[in-house]
Amino acid sequence: MSTGTEAHAPTAGEYIVHHLTHLNSTGHAQTAIIDWSVWNLDTLFFSIGLGVVTLLLLMKAASKATSGVPGRFQAAVEILVEMVADQAKGIVHSAESRKFVAPVALTVFFWIFLMNSMDFLPVDLLPRIGEMFGLHYMRVVPTADLNGTLGMSIGVLLICLYYNIKIKGFGGWVHELFTAPFGSHPLLYPINFLMQMIEFLAKTVSHGMRLFGNMYAGELVFMLIALMGGTATVFGFLGHVVAGSIWAVFHILIVALQAFIFMMLTLVYIGQAHESH
């Protein structure tokens, strides 16, 4: 006889909501896409951890670099370095700036690629391990959190502001804010300034939103595929395996492409900061 207290398997909706809930600083469930009053501890942990891994891998590649025949790891890193250097040379025309900008772009690409790649882990693997240590919520893809991607895009914005002031001088940059794009007539100053602020805001928000949207959608698809495997039927299991394999192969392109796009936009925005209107 049922007592009404037995544990029951979560519904599809409950399963997805649980997996979309962050481990945050409040200790309570929080499913809002963005909330500046809450620290998403899982996003901070995995993004900082993978950032450290990125730096260690690049430092290892630099320390092991030789002039002879490179190993596989060195060859792969050299291909990335040359690719980023070529892109930077075509966008940022200041050789002095490229000494800093190119390594930043390489780090951004490598870091975002690793964060995106967390999507390839089984959906329930790390959350189940976390539950063994009392962590009931955990999201492992930092780039599927809008707080994280907007944080990175704001970082790019700060670099752009730095180069605007460095290249044009503070006075020159302020003058550009009030005289571009429509001209230097005093009546146009407020309109020019408003357009400049809208441009900075639009570039920053779209930069972060583009990466977040693609990775959030990919995360949802993996969750839906995982639900197929939870059905107690042969067809459900086969569908889970086949669909998961196909989506994983396709998702490899998304993971690499989104890292490349974010890196390229970073170079483009910094390159624009070097140009005068």
From TrEMBL:
Any one Gene Ontology molecular-function term assigned to this protein's record: proton-transporting ATP synthase activity, rotational mechanism
PROSITE patterns per the UniProt record, alphabetical: ATPASE_A
Annotated keywords: ATP synthesis, Cell membrane, CF(0), Hydrogen ion transport, Ion transport, Membrane, Transmembrane, Transmembrane helix, Transport
Chief location of this protein within or outside the cell: membrane
InterPro entries in alphabetical order: ATP_syn_F0_a_bact/chloroplast, ATP_synth_F0_asu, ATP_synth_F0_asu_AS, F0_ATP_A_sf
Topological relation to the membrane, as annotated: Multi-pass membrane protein
Cellular component terms (Gene Ontology): plasma membrane; proton-transporting ATP synthase complex
Keyword Cell membrane found: yes
GO biological process: proton motive force-driven plasma membrane ATP synthesis
Membrane spanning residue stretches: 44-62, 100-118, 146-165, 220-242, 248-270
Compartments it resides in: Cell membrane; Membrane
Superkingdom assignment: Bacteria
Family membership noted in the UniProt record: Belongs to the ATPase A chain family.
Function: Key component of the proton channel; it plays a direct role in the translocation of protons across the membrane.
Protein name: ATP synthase subunit a
Classification of source organism: Bacteria, Pseudomonadati, Pseudomonadota, Betaproteobacteria, Rhodocyclales
